[in-house]
Specification:
Strand 4 and strand 5 form a beta hairpin. With 205 residues, this protein is α+β, with helices and mostly antiparallel strands. InterPro entries: Impact, Impact_N, Impact_N_sf, Ribosomal_Su5_D2-typ_SF.
């Protein structure tokens, strides 16, 4: 079955805390849904306050569906021993618009670069397994402007296509805003364009 290019996976809400232990070091893993990069810093600051004895709070995030942006941060651990293993799990689970953070409390025994990579990867994996991953779709809004006498024709298409109305103004001059899947927006717009007296406009998300 061909996959819609406007579908993606993300997490519904912050995950429950998980703890992974490796040679007395404790790794606390978390997953958070995010909509933009500005949300990252406050979350990390809250985790650092929560785990004030943590030596490192390492993380990775990814944003976007069609244009992907990401960042991985080792927070003082050896280069690429924490952030990138965490980001690798974001890629493995195929999720986006997420922040995965792992707070490490040192247990007195050095793990070595290989041990750190394995531990941060496992903590991120367990956190993502704990998270509730959902499928979502990119959507566009189409604005419809028409006279009241065209209402029946417009509503017939909305009902038949099971379209979602996000705004409506029902007067002599009517305005509706409908939410549609991005990949279907051009097709839906054409259906309304065929009705004489209906003006359509795709609103950028």
């Amino acid at each position: 079955m061909e996959q819609k290019t406007d579908s993606y996976k993300t997490v519904l809400k912050p995950s429950k805390e998980i703890i992974f232990k490796e040679r007395k070091s404790k790794f606390y893993g978390y997953v958070f849904p995010i909509k933009n990069e500005d949300e990252v810093k406050p979350i990390l600051e809250a985790l650092k306050k929560q785990h004030y004895t943590a030596n490192h709070v390492c993380y990775a995030w990814q944003l976007g569906v069609e244009k992907i942006r990401y960042r991985a941060n080792d927070d003082g651990e050896p280069n690429n021993s924490a952030g990138m293993p965490i980001y690798g799990q974001i890629q493995s689970f195929g999720v986006t618009n997420v922040l995965v953070a792992v707070a490490r409390i040192f247990g007195g025994t050095k793990l070595g670069v290989g041990g750190l990579i394995s531990a941060y990867r496992m903590a991120a994996q367990l956190a993502l397994q704990e998270a509730r991953i959902v499928s979502k779709t990119l959507r566009k809004e189409v604005e419809l402007s028409f006279d009241y006498k065209e209402m029946d024709k417009v509503m017939r298409i909305i009902k038949h296509q099971q379209l979602e109305i996000s705004f409506q103004k029902m007067e002599m001059d009517c305005t509706l805003i409908i939410s549609v899947r991005k990949t279907e927006s051009a097709h839906i717009k054409k259906m309304f364009d065929k009705i004489q007296g209906v003006k359509t406009k795709v609103i950028k998300p």
